[in-house]
Amino acid sequence: xNIRTNILLRVYLAFGLIILFAxxxxxxxxxxxxxxxxxxxxxxxxxxxxxxxxxxxxxxxxSIDGSLLAxxxxxxxxxxxxLAGGIEDNEVFYSKVDSLAASLANYFKDKSxxxxxxxxRNARHDRQRYFxxxxxxxxxxxxxxxxxxxxxxxxxKGGMIAVQENKRxxxxxxxxxRTIGYxxxxxxxxxxxxxxxxxxxxxxxxxRLVQRIAGGVWMPVNEDAEIAPKAGxxxxxxxxxxxxxxxxxxxxxxxxxxxxxxxxxxxxxxxTGEIKAxxxxxxxxxxxxxxxxxxxxxxxxxxxxxxxxASYMVGLEDGKFGIHDIVDTEGxxxxxxxxxxxxxxxxxxxxxxTAFERSSNVAIVKKIYLGYKDNPSAFTSHLHKLHLNEKLxxxxxxxxxxxxKTPKDxxxxxxxxxxxxxxxxxxxxxxxxxxxYNAVANNGKMVAPLFVHEIRRLGNxxxxxxxxxxxxxxxxxxxxxxxxxxLEGVVEEGTxxxxxxxxxxxxxxxxxxxxxxxxxxxxGKRKYQASFCGYxxxxxxxxxxxxxxxxxxxxxxxxxxxxxxxxxxxxDVVFGSDLEMVSNYKVPQLVGNTKMPExxxxxxxxxxxxxxxLGVKALYASNNQEELGIDTNSGIAYKEVKMNKGLVPDVSxxxxxxxxxxxxxxxxxxxxxxxxxxxxxxxxxGTPIYKGTKITIELQ
Length: 700
Known about the structure:
InterPro entries: Beta-lactam/transpept, Beta-lactam/transpept-like, PASTA_dom, PBP_dimer, PBP_dimer_sf, PCN-bd_Tpept. Pfam families: PASTA, PBP_dimer, Transpeptidase. This protein is 34% helix and 23% strand. The protein has 700 residues and is α+β, with helices and mostly antiparallel strands. The protein folds into four domains: 3-35; 52-237, Penicillin-binding protein 2a (Domain 2), CATH 3.90.1310; 244-583, 3-Layer(aba) Sandwich (Beta-lactamase), CATH 3.40.710; 604-699, Trypsin Inhibitor V, Chain A. The strands form nine sheets. Strands 2, 3, 4, 5, 10, 21 and 22 form a seven-stranded mixed sheet that branches. It has a six-stranded antiparallel sheet with strand order 13-12-11-26-25-24, with helices on both faces. A three-stranded antiparallel sheet has the order 1-8-9. Helix 10 packs antiparallel against helix 20 and helix 12 packs across helix 14 (361-372). It is flat, with a radius of gyration of 39 Å. The termini are far apart. 37% of the residues are buried.
């Protein structure tokens, strides 16, 4: 084969391979475009556009008095299409970009004008169509920046894109924070009302068409959603803002004073079961307490002596003892199965009523043990009939499970029955204990606590919640009258007499329980839980309340000194603020003075105006002496202050604020000694004043 033939064979081979490759390409193109075209076109559409969910505006949460507890406010991310129709021309964009940068810098004051300009120019160079300008701005900010250069050209010409998100805010900040709670849609974490009523509050999400652009970013195709979201319903909580604030402040103050680990307060309306206030605080640092856990509903623990109400109720109802039965407390020490039951003090021989009022452990242990030792299930089954072993079925999640032992439990021992008598080897949460006391206040009718009063949508009631009865009658009227008498006696003569109020009656029970120290049990470091549970006014109860303070480490750890003052402070203010309750009580009349009140010197006309508005009259107006320049018509003596220009004024009898005002306006430089009212001045009244003259005033 010659060289020419060899070359031609190679050319034909190469040409043939090219032809085959071209045919293969054409065949593949035909397959993709014709045979499989529909499939790939649908795939392309699904990859470049999709429907994204649009978050609905969540419903509000209101207090029972109409105050806003939680709401959603819109926040916006501002983005920009740098290739929008109105700024497609470079001349238009670059002539206005610096003005836009200056407006952004002046308004937000977070970057310089140069930084904004550089960022916008770089985004333009990179042909970005979804450039982030600013995150998390308010609606007011949005209205303002719509007027900025370029942005004022509109969505499609100026390229401004506002992406809305809803931010949840609490106008009262930490007020009832844990009760209001939160709902995390991503982790499905549900806390408080936000979590329990998420189906109502969350509303219905909408849909919006979005398109994927360079960088994998999804940009809305249209400004408005194709399917508009439906706003959530509003929740009307039973919380009263004023009571809630009062309860939180009183509790926090006591926790700081006692250096306690944590504490809680619950205020409940007797008839309806509505929770008016619920406060929980945990120590996070020295003298710092925050609401991190809802102890009031979730913390099941041994209640201690507040449980004696249940023990007395069962014993009285079963006829095991009467309140006038005599019991020997044996010097405050009662040994049973190598374990000694102790009283705080040696009560000696007392009746069962006095034992309750003074919180004798020995007395109730002896009566319950002797009455039920042969049939302990009779005692526990009666407790179960009171529904103390059942959850209350609260409207918010997280309720602790109560534990009332029975002889069938593996942990039952010979000590269990006597221990249960005074609140050990049982577990209940504060709200479960309060529900029992509230039933006594409610003439024996046990109702479940309510946290939500109503659900509304667009102002219309969707659902209205009323008191749910757990037990129509917890005991006989006779037993009920006896336990009410004893609960009042605790405050009148017993362990809680320090919180007695002469204006209205409080009924309740103290509880000081030793708390187990982890794995060390009761042999480790001694910790105590102080609690007081009761209701007021005792003769016509409207509110019940429980206060629990865990591990007070400063001062006393007894309930009367730790939990009692919180109860009294909250109850006093609630009682004094409720016209209905106050009107049912005759307030003692204070006897007036026979000596007329003293009045500080001031302007005659101003003083007369004040007297006239207040309607103040002295008891003995005849004591006034008209000849001394004292107005006898008002019945109260006063002295008019006259100021003569250039002369030292007389400020005797004035308070410090008035004296400084008068002396300062006279051109004097006052030096102050003491406190109270002015009793002496270094310069006599009427003395000529020279510029910069100092005057010393003494106050007592």
